[in-house]
Amino acid sequence: MTTLTTPQTHALRDQLLARKEQLLQELDAVQVAHRERMKSADSAPQDAYATQANQVAQNAVRDAEARRDHDELVAVRAALARIEDGSYGACQDCGADIGLPRLHAFPAALRCIGCQTKAEQAA
Ligand SMILES: [Zn+2]
């Protein structure tokens, strides 16, 4: 159990749901852009190597962004699942309260700040 009150948990759930919608829209936009690229690549003249190389570089940046969005979406969904099962707000490593200020800043946070720092140093 954590010290989060029901209204606090509901506010954080709303924050997570809004973030989830935003991420889904961003990932959707990436897919639309990808389809557009495939179409224009088909019709592009075969000798446009410079343009293609430039596009490949741009695609790599966009793919990295899409991966970050996807990773965050996974974390947001996991946080929503923890709200459902009642484990939300507790550090997954030490079981202590993650704390409301940290959850407001990172609603999908898995660990308290101390354990997060340790986990990042270990990585
Ligand atoms: Zn902890």
TrEMBL record:
UniProt zinc finger (dksA C4-type) residues: 91-115
Signal peptide: none
Residue stretches making up the Zinc finger DksA/TraR C4-type domain: 86-121
Compositional bias ranges of the Low complexity kind: 52-61
DNA repair recorded as keyword: no
Alphabetic keyword roster: Metal-binding, Zinc, Zinc-finger
Keyword Transmembrane helix set for record: no
Residue span of region Disordered: 35-68
Classification lineage: Bacteria, Pseudomonadati, Pseudomonadota, Betaproteobacteria, Burkholderiales
Record-level Gene Ontology MF annotations: zinc ion binding
Protein name: TraR/DksA family transcriptional regulator
